[in-house]
Write a structure and sequence with these properties.
With 379 residues, the chain is of the alpha/beta class. The protein is built from 13 helices and twelve strands. Helix 8 links the parallel strand 6 and strand 7. Bound molecules: pyridoxal-5'-phosphate.
Length: 379
């Protein structure tokens, strides 16, 4: 049996999520746009209830939630959608060097639309320095897009301050909260963000479904759709709604709202135990910001190459970079953005804990990792 310690890459569906989804594959299969008949109206009601549940998790209005195929699409829609609709003089979008590829790889498509994606550096712990941000903020900036929490190192950003600064120069604020929302509570009114991305499968919900919060909904932030067709999602995202997925996302959001605090406590306990267990490994370095970090993520640099360690620790599911580039032998761009060399980046190992991780699993992992590291010293 593999011990799964890779929750930042994906989380299992909560059993209650699966149960909520099942009827919508079979008995309640109707198209929610077919409101002329009862089954269609029932499907539509289920979608609208899910929209309400996602909105409640964020402190938003349900009219501000657009369902998408996941956080990659939400990020694409937020940046490309706002840029393509904008006819004015603001031509820059500011972001950071450690964003998900679904932000960074928008550089070329944004350039083709006449916009520049300006990638700001981060500090050695992965924080966006607010003075660096200030020096780039002016009336040419259309949007600032900064993740709430990083998927590899867990570093949190100061979203309320960044948002305030963006708004001072009249720019929109988008945050990719995909990782944050699976571990910590947030409120879009407190943060004051204009757009926010999230994904079902990082939240103990299904893959292939996510949401974009858009302040003011269809009559709020001007947005050009990425997908044209029927008038679903207020003309902002065409295509027949993924009813089972959306229902699952709604249930996952509800569970997170009700049980998130307990999950957070569990993760903090596990991480403290993990860090304590690892403390006597020599030459161990932690990536990320110890003061501002997701409770369930530990990214460390050992004396050994992480590929080799992972090959020796086959009974654990671990990561040395983001899963999006699996198979690629290039080292993590996130670790390199912290100022680490390529050889150092090859030694990064991420352990990400989840609600189903047990104390016993953590203890066994510590024991096995220590044996591996201490018995195979690097000369
Ligand atoms: C997983 C992840 C994404 C992509 O989400 P998908 O739903 O898989 O497209 C985007 N941003 C962050 C921070 C993530 O962790």
């Amino acid at each position: 049996m593999t011990s799964y310690l890779d929750f930042s890459a994906s989380t299992p569906c909560d059993e209650r999520v699966v149960q909520a989804m099942l009827p919508f594959f079979t008995n309640h299969f109707a198209n929610p746009a077919s409101t002329l008949h009862l089954p269609g109206r029932q499907a539509k009601n289920a979608v609208e209830q899910a929209r309400e549940q996602v909105a409640e998790l964020l402190g938003a209005f349900s009219s501000e939630i657009i369902f998408t195929s996941g956080a990659s699409e939400s990020n694409n829609l937020a940046l490309l959608g706002v840029a393509r609709k904008h006819a004015g003089k603001r031509r820059k979008i500011l972001t950071t060097a450690i964003e998900h590829k679904a932000i960074l790889n928008l550089k070329d498509p944004l350039a083709r639309a006449g916009f520049e994606l300006v990638v700001l550096p981060v500090t050695p712990t992965g924080r966006l320095d607010l003075e660096v941000l200030t020096s780039h903020l002016n009336d040419e900036v259309l949007m600032v897009s900064v993740q709430a929490a990083n998927n590899e190192i867990g570093t949190l950003q100061d979203i309320p301050s960044i948002t305030e600064m963006a708004h001072q120069v009249g720019a929109y604020m988008h945050t990719d909260a995909t990782q944050y929302i699976g571990q910590l509570p947030l409120d879009v009114i407190d943060w004051d963000v204009d757009l926010l991305s999230l994904s079902g499968h990082k939240l103990y919900g299904p893959k292939g479904v996510g949401a974009l919060f858009v302040r003011g909904g269809a009559s709020g932030i001007p947005l050009e759709p990425l997908i044209y067709g029927g008038g679903q999602e207020w003309n902002l995202r065409a295509g027949t709604t993924n009813v089972p997925g959306v229902v699952g996302l709604g249930m996952a959001a509800r569970i997170m709202r009700e049980e998130g605090r307990a999950i957070q406590q569990h993760l903090l306990t596990l991480r403290a135990r993990l860090l304590d267990g690892l403390s006597d490994i020599p030459d161990l370095h932690f990536h990320g910001d110890p003061e501002h970090i997701l409770p369930g993520v530990v990214n460390m640099r050992l004396p050994q190459d992480s590929e080799i360690l992972m090959a020796h620790l086959q009974s654990y599911a671990l990561s040395n970079g983001s899963a999006c580039r699996t198979g690629a032998l290039e080292p993590s761009y996130v670790i390199q953005a912290l100022g680490c060399s390529v050889p150092e980046a090859y030694r990064a190992l991420r352990i990400s804990l989840g609600r189903t991780t047990s104390v016993k699993e953590v203890d066994l992992f510590v024991q096995d990792l220590k044996r591996e590291v201490l018995e195979n010293p690097v000369f």
